[in-house]
Amino acid sequence: MTIQKFSTIGTVLVGSLAVAASPAQQSSEDGWTMVWSDEFDGSKIDKKKWGFDVDCWGGGNDEQQCYRDGNRNATIENGALVISARREQATGAAWPMHMWGSVQWPNALVTKPYTSARLSTKGKAAWRYGKFEIRAKLPQGQGTWPAIWMLPEKDRYGSWAASGEIDILEAVNLGVPCAKCPGGRENTILGTLHFGGKWPNNKHKGEEVPFPEVLDGGFHTYAIEWYPDRMVWQVDGRTFAERKANEWSTTGSTNPGAPFDQPFHLILNLAIGGKLAETRGVGGVRLDGYPKRMEVDWVRIWQKPEVGGTASGK
To answer: Known catalytic residue: 170?
Structure first.
C-alpha cells in the first residue's frame, strides 16, 4: 500500500475510527492485549519503568540542550508527564555513556544554553512488534523538536543505523510561519524509519504530512502498529503512513524484516535546536516563550498472538 501525501490529514481517513475506542474496547474488538502502560497517575515518575539520559551530547544532531534527570526538567503534573525545556546554561558530559569506549576524551565536558529531559525504557522494558500509543501535547516555537521514538535494545546488526531506529512521531518548529502549510503556520508531523548501514551509510524512509489539529493546544494520540512485514503510523486513529519490509534493510543481516525483527525500547524527549529544527522554519532557535513543555497523558503498548510479538522486562 502506498500512502500519498495530502493537504490536510483531516480530509483523508485510511482505516479511520470515527470515535477513539477505549483500551478495553480495542483489546476485545481488534484482538490487542495491553502488555505495558503508564498512565502517569502517581506523584512521581516511575523509576521502575523509566530511566534518564544525562549528557550534553546533542544527539549527534548539534542539538543545544543538556539532558538532566531532576524534577526541574521532568515531573508529573495533573496526571501527565511533563518534559520541560528551559533556557538556562548547563555543563555536562560531551558524550553519552554508550560512546565512552569509542571516543578519545570520554570525560570531556561541554556547556549548552538549554536544559531538557530524555526518558527511555532501555534496560527496563523492550518489545518486538505490537501497537504503541502515546497521547501527548506538543510544544510550539522555532527550534523545538519533540520526539516519540524507539531504538534497539541491543545493536545486533551494528551501530546506528544498521540496527534500526523507529520514529513514531517527530515535529519541529510547530506554529511558526509556513507558507506551504494549511493556515500559514507549521503543522506537519513526521513518521520515519532509519536503517541501512552504519553511519554515514545509513538510509531512511518516512512521511511528513500536515496535521493542523496539532496546533489546537490539546492532546492527540500518536501511534504505530509494528508487524513483521510492515509499519503503520496513525494519529488519532487515522493512518497517515505505511512502510513495508521490502523498503528497509540492513548491512548486518539478510534476514527478512531485519533490522526491525529485534526488541526495541521507547524514548520520549524534547530537544532544542539541532540540524532538523534550525535549518527549517525561520531558522535557528528563538529565545522567547520558555520553558517549553511536552506533556504525555499516557503510554499504552499492545500485542496480539498472531503478530508474534515479544516483550521483555516489566
So the answer is: yes
